[in-house]
């Protein structure tokens, strides 16, 4: 595409804005890196290179150094390094909608020295973003291509087609270019502009609350530092996270709780996490080494930083006996440290199973790695399950007691019925069919006057049978008893 007098390299306004946004975040990058960050769907880095050249004519970007890399064909390629000028920093701040004071420096020194570490940080951010390629429109040509000269039939065209297919199969990324900041000062004392001694400087900071990551601090390890130096950064991060400041006055943008006098400084900068503990610290290993060497380095860093990520265990006795115990690990003062490699990020993306969190047992996705499966929430869930089981056990025991009591009553009733059935019936009087003998608990006056028991008649019948039945007997009874009303016949 032809240029103009103002833009001799023919770049579009969109391309120039993408260059300014990318360099405003990563500070130093090659044209190919900017393409990977912002427009991976373009056929080559020439589009970005044209934008850099036009911005260079405006005095917004400059190239003070170069870097070498090995391309896909195995050839060593030398590329220009691009960085912003002072006016370009202001222009990038406008594109990113950030205050100029938050933009940092122009990184001219890093550009002159080859910016090896900065370039690895840029590659890491690109692996996080996994920017989806946008469809581009073909450039109108004056002379149509013939099948014999078509680009698709050339080796370069086939490589471009393979690269395009690989772009379409990219994994899901995390955040946008504006979600990132690099070389961020985290003052353990002092201020953001004049930090105190031993204040860490994060290689990159991701803020993507819309993706469930309010803030993540990223350290890029090129393998040039020993594990002790790398582990010491965790201590400085923890010192910054522990720093508190006076809680801001009540306002819609204040994160302080009512009555809270102090608040963590990092929370005033990035907002609350919505979970216990400090923001995560991600360490990305970029040096390509063998599996054994990588595992040894990870284990060394994990061992040296254990005091900062392990948390504090709280144990409890969960029964009347001292043998059954349970507890949880508190992470209020622990730094979640996650590690991965640049190759893993590129292949699976930041949302794939590429994270190994110190204290966990396997590689996990980001949400699982950020979770604390042994914290107080898990303990409370187990406690609720134990309470439910205990209630169920008490209910079963109560039902068992009721069932045993009911069965005992049934047994007693059955035994009583059997005893009654087995008991001989009480003898009855052969004359009146009444009880032959009176109750042993009651005193029967008839037994006093009745003749001796004969085993056949009750006392009343024995008295009646003993009475005189003739005429002379009735007279004698009337005289003896004085029964004047005895009827005469």
The value of Rg in angstroms is: 49 Å
Q: Percent range for helical residues?
A: 40-55%
Overall number of strands: 13
Major beta sheet, specifics? 6 strands, mixed
**So how many helices?**
17
Nearest-integer average pLDDT: 84
Query: What oligomeric state do the depicted chains represent?
Result: single chain
How much beta, percentage-wise?
A: 15-25%
Q: Return residue spans where pLDDT drops below 50 for at least 5 consecutive residues.
A: 141-160
> N-to-C SSE series?
HEHHEEHHHHEEEHEEHEHHEEEHEHHHHH
Describe this structure as you would to a colleague.
The chain has a 6-stranded mixed sheet, sandwiched between helices. A 3-stranded antiparallel sheet has the order 1-3-2. With 489 residues, the protein is of the alpha+beta class. It has 4 domains: 1-113, Arc Repressor Mutant, subunit A; 115-133 and 166-250 and 260-317 and 326-372; 375-423; 428-489, no CATH class. The longest helix has 47 residues, at 376-422. The radius of gyration is 49 Å and the shape is rod-shaped. The chain is built from 17 helices and 13 strands.
């Amino acid at each position: 595409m032809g240029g103009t007098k103002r833009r001799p390299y023919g770049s579009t306004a969109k391309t120039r804005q993408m260059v300014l946004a990318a360099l405003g975040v990563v500070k130093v990058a090659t044209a190919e890196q900017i393409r990977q960050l912002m427009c991976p769907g373009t056929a080559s880095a020439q589009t970005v290179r044209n934008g850099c050249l036009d911005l260079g004519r405006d005095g917004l970007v400059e190239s003070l150094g170069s870097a070498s890399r090995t391309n896909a064909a195995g050839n060593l390629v030398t590329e220009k390094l691009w960085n912003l000028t002072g006016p370009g920093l202001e222009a990038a701040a406008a594109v990113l909608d950030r205050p100029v004071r938050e933009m940092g420096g122009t990184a001219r020194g890093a550009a002159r020295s080859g910016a090896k570490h900065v370039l690895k940080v840029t590659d890491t951010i690109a692996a996080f973003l996994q920017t989806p390629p946008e469809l581009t429109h073909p450039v109108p040509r004056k002379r149509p291509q013939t099948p014999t000269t078509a680009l698709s039939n050339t080796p370069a065209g086939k490589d471009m087609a393979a690269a395009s297919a690989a772009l379409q199969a990219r994994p899901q990324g995390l955040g946008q270019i504006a979600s990132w900041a690099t070389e961020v000062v985290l003052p353990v004392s002092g201020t953001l502009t004049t930090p105190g001694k031993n204040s860490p400087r994060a290689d990159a900071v991701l803020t993507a609350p819309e993706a469930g990551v309010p803030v993540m601090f990223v350290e890029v390890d090129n393998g040039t530092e020993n594990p002790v130096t790398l582990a010491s950064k965790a201590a400085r991060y923890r010192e910054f996270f522990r720093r508190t400041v006076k809680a801001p006055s009540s306002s819609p943008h204040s994160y302080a709780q009512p009555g809270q006098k102090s608040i963590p400084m990092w929370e005033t900068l990035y907002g609350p996490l919505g979970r216990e503990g400090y923001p995560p610290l991600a360490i990305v290993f970029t040096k390509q080494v063998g599996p054994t060497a990588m595992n040894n380095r990870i284990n060394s860093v994990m061992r040296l930083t254990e005091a900062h990520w392990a948390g504090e265990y709280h144990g409890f006795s969960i029964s009347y006996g001292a043998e059954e115990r349970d507890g949880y690990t508190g992470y209020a003062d622990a730094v979640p440290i996650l590690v991965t490699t640049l190759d893993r990020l590129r292949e699976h993306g930041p949302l794939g199973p590429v994270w190994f969190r110190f204290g966990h047992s396997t590689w996990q996705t980001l949400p699982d790695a950020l979770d604390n499966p042994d914290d107080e929430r898990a303990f409370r869930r187990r406690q609720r399950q134990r309470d439910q089981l205990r209630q169920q056990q008490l209910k079963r025991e109560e039902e068992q007691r009721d069932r045993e009591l009911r069965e005992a009553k049934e047994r007693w009733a059955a035994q009583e019925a059997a005893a009654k059935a087995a008991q001989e019936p009480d003898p009855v009087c052969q004359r009146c069919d009444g009880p032959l003998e009176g109750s042993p608990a009651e005193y029967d006056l008839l037994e006093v006057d009745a003749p001796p028991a004969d085993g056949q008649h009750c006392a009343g019948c024995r008295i009646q049978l003993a009475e005189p039945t003739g005429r002379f007997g009735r007279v004698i009874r009337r005289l003896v008893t004085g029964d004047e009303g005895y009827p005469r016949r």
